[in-house]
# Entry
Amino acid sequence: MYAFVFHHSSLSFILTQKQLKLYSSLFYNIMDEIIINAFESVGIPKMQTLVYLDLLKNKESTATQVAKRTKMHRANVYDTLNKLKERNLVYLSTKEGKQIFAALSTDLIVNEEKDKLENLKSAMNYIKTTFVSGQTPKVYTLEGLNAIKSLLFGLLEQNSDIWIYGLAENENVINILNDKLMHSFHIERIKKHIELKLLFYKIPNEEIKTLSNLKFTEARLLPKTQQSKSSQITQIVCNGVVYITLWIHPIHTIVIENEAIAKEYLDLYNILWNHSVKVI
# Structure
């Protein structure tokens, strides 16, 4: 009987050949489980991993030989070997009229996972450009004319440029613009040097035209090819928030609080603005 002596600092012990074989078997079983779990995490089923490991340990083999060693049905083994071949984890050759399978390197798996990781990073980067980090769009609605008036005065607290696109020719709009509170709004806005940019889809009413004569105010009209006969929607963008008012009873305003979405609107408005003419 052979014996193996192990020395570790002050610790010494003797293992028989039988014990060594037992411990080696346990070690390989543990490693096999680790590999099986790792392969499963990238979508490779346990049966495929067991067959692959068998080929790694036993080199070139027929499906029958693999079936005997793994104690699996030959038809299942053959099907599994073909799936491993599709994954480029085994290759098939013919010797003496027999199909022989052999294991290939796992480099392809690693490269595929690297590609997946890069694709995931690209997707995450896209998400970051669409939704501000740590922020998801906050969307809610306001109802009525008074809500719109309060909204406009709230914009003054932002101390940021105000963009308004599409002032519908609607009695409610005219009433708001002529309201005494709106005169106060413009006085306060001009005091704070807040720019107001108005973009029209058609030639506005005289009441609206007078707005362009105010300080820190500019109005432009879209080219004829881009003009619309009518619209019931007004869009406002200010400091990372989009306000969309639908001038149909009951009047509702959709509020979207998200910097990325607001930036998309501003980018579009700037393109339209640069192709529009000044309202005099």
In short: The mean pLDDT is 78. The domain at 138-278 is CATH 3.30.870.10 (Endonuclease; Chain A). The radius of gyration is 36 Å.
